[in-house]
Design a protein that fits this description.
By secondary structure, the chain is of the alpha+beta class. Helix content is about 30%, strand content about 30%. The protein has 10 helices and 43 strands. The strands form 13 sheets. Strands 11-22-13-15-16-17-20-12 form an 8-stranded antiparallel sheet, with no helix packed on it. Strands 3-41-5-35-36 form a 5-stranded antiparallel sheet, with no helix packed on it. It has a 5-stranded antiparallel sheet with strand order 7-28-9-24-25. β37 and β38 form a beta hairpin. The longest helix has about 55 residues. It is rod-shaped, with a radius of gyration of 52 Å.
Length: about 800
């Protein structure tokens, strides 16, 4: 081999091999340090690509398992809330069984119902407030969202929905409503009340109250009372025309005393005639005397007189009076002054034609003081003249009343009146309070009214405290205290408060407003219907709900079960009302057709009798208000509300959006499952109308609650199935991930034993190469020895 200096080929060769060994040694060290076979694409390009794909799958599966676990947590949250609802339903069932026992009063059941209502509210609160990561779980929003163009349509989410816009057409075959009737309302002993017959609007009369002592006329169509109002020529100038005889009773057939024989005679008086007080003189003969027979002269204590004050209702003591009989002039007059009742007066008892008076004859004579009113034309200041006509048809006292009406307040005045039965001589004094409406001036006209007495059916103006049904067997009046009456219906409740001074009309108005406004069970577009939700029957109509006078007929403008009303109050109040169902409610039959709102394609149709359309639109029950396509009106012949289908069909739109919770349980697109939770509230469970306020309703509630318990059990079972599915999904994900990790490991992970052998080889080669490099670098030194 030649010996050269300029190029050291052996050294270059040694360097090349040392570089190769260093490079391989460094790679081996990197692999041993990282534990990976592939650290760079250059290590294994295809292996790296496969490994990274597997790594994406592995991380995706890991996240999917976590997603599934989150889904389980969400479902368990919902299921936990359902468990509480289950507990609430069990308590509600226990309460329903308790209330079904006949030993409880209505007030006892009211307390049970109060707890029942609280439990229903808690179910709705749980439905509205149960959340997972702020996502509502039990109100249906976690499964679907909906809206409608009518408040008479409600969607109940039952599962995964077929989203879209639906046109829901309803054609109703109307059913009938519940009608209830109370016991007959009659007046208790000692009670009187009035009722308008006609004329109240003409003169703007508001009501008559505080009736006492008048004759009962309500059961006699030939009898009534009248008040004739006059507003012209009110004059206080003289007494003429301001007195008159009401009537005369003849004790036997020989008596000829007549109303025409009676009059005021001031010429027989010692002092001036003075009529300070309006009222009635009751005159009774104590002896027999005649102007057509016998002798002229004075008959001592021939009559006795007393006075009934028309302003205060005060009845004076009897006063014996002498009479002077003039058989020549055929006259009978009182002797001297008669001072009684604050007045000073004298009387004619026989006209010029003569009269025969017998002991026991009786007469009633009225006088009036007009000194407080003086209007020559038509009164514009609210004054008026009032003439009373009694139950025997006799023209009676005339009173001129200042401020009879007012435009700013309800004017009220008590009238004290008397009347005589000319058939038997009985005279009765009574009173009543007339309240006028706000108006000015007073209007002329005649007001006719009837009076009811003990045992008669109550009138519009009868106060509740005067009704016999509200007096206990021990004589206690239940209206000694305010009575609360709570009415349930249409999924709502409202309470009215009744006072003893409330009248039959007040009770009718309060109950009407409660049904119409408090429960929303009237007809907003028909005042006539609302006016007959509660009717007090004054005139019986056979063959109708108003067949019994003196009863309340109560109904609502809804149909079927939606029209049911229930009442709770003090047991004595409920017993007093004695409500009975005289017409059972019947649901309307609805023909419902569902079409695609955009294309008109028919989705399906059904005939429903419970106002709920089921299994036509996937995942949704559609609740339809009972008033849809039904118009109510008052039938004056049948005396009840009539219901008829409107012309054509009613169309309502429903918008549905699928909002089911999708759980990503795979590493790739589309690898999802839907977790849906059905709506859980009192509406979806059918508990809105669960009442235990009567024994019958309590027993029916047991069945309804059992159904709700079954529904919740089904919901929990569905959630449990979904949880189990997710747990299996997690297990499958973990197995898959494990296998993919193993595969990726085989591609990318380092075989340390094999790599260590390679490392040792390169380490030795590196050391050997370095030594040989040193030897090769010494070869040029040999050439120097030759140069020496």
């Amino acid at each position: 081999m030649p010996m050269i200096i300029y190029n050291n080929i052996p050294s270059l060769t040694a360097q090349r091999y040392v570089g190769i060994s260093n490079t391989n040694l460094a790679k081996s060290l990197e692999k041993l340090s990282s534990g990976l076979r592939i650290n760079h694409a250059s290590d294994d390009a295809s292996g790296l690509a496969i490994s990274e794909k597997l790594r994406g799958q592995i991380s995706g599966l890991k996240r999917a398992a976590m997603n599934a676990q989150d889904g389980i947590s969400m479902l368990q949250t919902a299921e936990g809330a359902m468990g509480e609802v289950h507990s609430i339903l069990q308590r509600m069932r226990e309460l329903a069984v308790q209330a079904s026992n006949g030993i409880y009063t209505t007030n006892d059941r009211k307390y049970i119902q109060d707890e029942m209502d609280q439990l229903k509210q808690e179910i709705n609160r749980i439905s509205a407030s149960t959340e997972f990561n702020t996502k509502k779980l039990l109100n249906g929003d976690s499964t679907a969202l909906w809206s409608a163009d009518s408040n008479k349509l409600t969607a109940i989410i039952r599962g995964r929905v077929a989203e879209g816009n639906y046109d829901i057409k309803v054609d109703a075959n109307p059913g009938q409503n519940y009608i209830y009737k109370t016991d007959v309302m009659t007046l208790k002993d000692g009670a009187y009340a009035a009722e308008f017959v006609e004329g109240q609007n003409q003169i703007s009369a508001r009501r008559i109250t505080n009736v006492n002592g008048l004759n009962s006329t309500i059961n006699d169509s030939t009898k009534d009372y009248e008040l004739t109002v006059t507003t012209t020529n009110l004059d206080s100038a003289a007494y003429t025309g301001y007195s008159g005889a009401v009537g005369v009773y003849n004790a036997d057939t020989s008596s000829t005393l007549a109303s025409s024989d009676l009059g005021i005679n001031s010429s027989v008086m010692t002092n001036a005639l003075n009529i300070a007080n309006s009222g009635y003189y009751e005159i009774e003969a104590l002896a027999n005397f005649s102007s057509t027979a016998g002798t002229t002269g004075t008959v001592a204590s021939a009559i006795r007189v007393r006075f009934y004050d028309a302003n205060t209702g005060t009845l004076s003591d009897w006063q014996n009076v002498n009479v002077y009989v003039d058989t020549t002039a055929n006259t009978i007059v009182t002797s001297g002054d008669i001072t009684v009742g604050g007045n000073n007066i004298g009387f004619d008892l026989g006209a010029s034609a003569g009269a025969t008076v017998r002991a026991g004859d009786r007469a009633l004579f009225w006088v009036a003081n007009y000194s407080n009113v003086d209007v020559s034309g038509t009164a514009t200041n609210g004054s008026a003249q009032i003439q009373f006509t009694d139950s025997y048809g006799k023209s009676n006292i005339k009173l001129e009343v200042a401020n009879f009406v007012s435009s700013t307040e309800y004017k009220s005045k008590t009238y004290y009146v008397g009347e005589i039965n000319t058939a038997n001589g009985s005279i009765n004094y009574g009173s009543f309070n007339l309240e006028m409406g706000k108006m000015l001036p007073a209007q002329s006209g005649t007001l006719t009214f009837e009076v009811a007495g003990p045992g008669d059916r109550a009138t519009d103006f009868t106060q509740l405290k005067d009704i016999a049904r509200f007096v206990n067997a021990d004589g206690r009046n239940i209206f000694d205290n305010t009575q609360a009456l709570t009415i349930y219906g249409n999924g709502k409740q409202t309470t009215i408060y009744l006072e003893g001074n409330d009248t039959i009309k007040d009770f009718e108005d309060k109950l009407t407003n409660a049904i119409k406004d408090g429960l929303g069970m009237g007809n907003d577009g028909n005042v006539n219907v609302n006016d007959h939700l509660v009717d007090y029957v004054k005139t019986a109509t056979s063959g109708t709900p108003q067949a019994v006078a003196g009863t309340f007929v109560i109904q609502s403008a809804l149909l079927g079960e939606d029209s049911r009303l229930s009442f709770i109050g003090d047991q004595t109040l409920i017993d007093g009302l004695s409500l009975a169902t005289i017409q059972e409610g019947k649901n309307s039959e609805l023909t419902v057709t569902v079409t695609n709102a955009h294309t008109g394609e028919t989705i399906g149709s059904d005939v429903v009798g419970d106002y709920t359309l089921k299994n036509i639109i996937k995942g949704v029950d559609v609740k339809i208000n009972s008033s849809v396509d039904v118009d109510s009106s008052w039938n004056s012949t049948t005396k009840k509300l009539s219901f008829a289908s409107m012309s054509g069909t009613v169309s309502m739109k429903l918008h549905l959006v699928d909002n089911a919770t999708q759980l990503q349980i795979g590493a790739n697109e589309g690898q999802t499952i839907d977790a849906y939770i059905t709506q859980l509230d009192t509406k979806s469970l059918g508990l809105d109308d669960v009442y235990v306020i009567s024994q019958d309703l309590a027993q029916k509630s047991i069945t309804k609650i059992d159904k709700a318990i079954e529904n919740v059990s089904s919901m929990r079972a569905t959630i449990g199935a979904q949880v189990n599915r997710l747990e299996y999904a997690i297990s499958n994900l973990n197995v898959t991930k494990e296998n993919l990790v193993a595969a990726e490991s085989r591609i990318r992970d380092l075989d340390v034993a094999a790599e260590m052998a390679t490392f040792t080889r390169w380490q030795i080669l590196n050391q050997s190469g370095t030594a040989m490099l040193a030897q090769a670098n010494q070869l040029p030194q040999l050439a120097l020895q030759l140069l020496r």
